[in-house]
Amino acid sequence: MSTKNLQLNDSLDLLEDRKHLKKALRNAEKRSRLRSLGLTAPLVVFLLIFFALPVVYMLFYSVYTPQVKEYLPRFHEALQEDNAVIPGEEVFQLLAKDMRSSKKAHTLARALKLFRQQDIPLWRLLKKTSRKLPRQEVVSMKAWFIQHNQAWGKAETWADIRSIGSVFTPFYLTKTLDYKYSASRGLQRVEEEERLYVKVLLNTFGISMMVTLIALCLAFPVAYLIAHTKPKTANMLMILVLLPFWTSLLVRTYAWIVILQREGLVNQILLSTGLIDAPLEMMHNRFGVYVTMVHILLPFMLLPIYSVMQAIPDSYVKAALNLGANPAQAFFRIYLPLTLPGVAAGSLLVFILSLGYYITPTLVGGAKETMVSMLIAERVNVFLNWSLAGALGVMLFIATLLIAVVGRRFLAAGTMGSQ
């Protein structure tokens, strides 16, 4: 009996030790995870402050329109509480009072800014009414408004006022797609002469795609040369590739301006050799934008392709040649598919960087080379229209996000195919 009791006690002690060991192991794993989180915390905080918060701020400002609430506060509050199709006397009274106080403070134009941007007839109605407001109180302000203009007694007028006067409105988001929204008329396409933003967005995509294609055609053979040449030569070539990073973006752009302008180096050489009779226009057009942007973004295409090529064993192509494939077949059927992950990564990187480029197209391009980034800067710095700038930023952000998702899937498919 004593032997059995001893064995039972030993088994219980062993189970207890296992429990303590598992608990200690879990605690050690928790401490290890906490240390890892502590190491990544500065990066997470940095991304939250300098990336996530600006994006959220941009999204917020693209739909935030508080002008009516700020400059006509009593009218705005009363209108929110009055759910009638045509509001009651109190709303008309407060609208007249807020209009008078805004005129005295010289803020009426700011209060009616949204109406001027979204609905010109309604803006004119409000402006004319504000000019003819009676200086003294009348028995019924509602009757005076309707007598002044029959539009004040229509449900469509008040539906549009409620929509435009809302603190949050999709007006600027729809405007970036060349549409306008009205509560009474729904979603409509803007007039032909006002259709600007979709053209600029397509222009931005066209320039970015062409820059990416040219950079790919130039970077692929150079990356192949660096990956398959002697180490000493490869190091020299890599230094030449990385050399542009040692100078400022602005300096590189101005260098191309000096080279490509009418009195620049290229035109002087061509004129002196007799190849041309008059200087070529290579500045403030699409050609200058392509040349400058490709030169600046070429390393971002070359480096991912080179890193993938360097990891491809030479034995793969040699095996294909030994099995009877000619050099072209070995390259296109064996080597090229293995480089697709690098090609996809470089193309995605260059395309996304091109979408948001501002300095180079501004200095080198012309009116036909307007990109979304230039419109955003103009709306912020010239027109002080932060809401429209935010909406344009949202459109560019969504486009970049979609391209990144599609490119990532293509990159994953290329990696699986190469394996």
Summarize the entry for a quick read.
The protein is mostly helical. The chain has helices at about 1-65, 65-70, 75-80, 90-105, 110, 115-120, 120-130, 140-150, 155-165, 170-175, 195-225, 230-240, 250-260, 265-275, 285-310, 315-320, 325-355, 360-365, 370-380, 385-419; strands at about 180, 185-190.
Q: What order do the helices and strands come in, and which of them pair?
A:
Layout (H helix, E strand, L loop, with lengths): L1 H62 L3 H5 L1 H9 L7 H17 L2 H4 L1 H6 L1 H12 L9 H8 L6 H10 L6 H5 L3 E4 L3 E4 L7 H31 L3 H12 L6 H12 L4 H9 L12 H25 L3 H9 L4 H29 L3 H6 L7 H10 L4 H33 L1
Antiparallel strand pairs: 1-2
Structural commentary:
It is a single chain. By secondary structure, the chain is mostly helical. It has two domains: 97 residues, no CATH class; 222 residues, MetI-like (MetI-like fold), CATH 1.10.3720. The chain has 20 helices and two strands. Strands 1-2 form a two-stranded antiparallel sheet. Strand 1 and strand 2 form a beta hairpin. The protein is extended and about 100 Å long. The mean pLDDT is 85. One of its GO terms (cellular component) is plasma membrane.
Considering DSSP H and I runs of 4 or more, what fraction of the residues is helical? over 70%
Please list the strands of the largest sheet in the order they lie side by side: 1-2
Number of domains: 2
Do you know the CATH topology of the largest domain? Answer: MetI-like fold
- The radius of gyration over CA amounts to 33 Å
The top-level CATH class of the largest domain is: Mainly Alpha
Structural class: mainly alpha
Q: How many beta-strand elements?
A: 2
Question: Order of helices and strands, N to C?
Answer: HHHHHHHHHHEEHHHHHHHHHH
Outline: extended
Q: Identify the CATH homologous superfamily of the largest domain.
A: MetI-like
Poorly predicted residue ranges: none
Q: How far is the N terminus from the C terminus?
A: 65 Å
SS field, number of helical segments: 20
Rounded mean pLDDT is 85
The CATH architecture term of the largest domain is Orthogonal Bundle
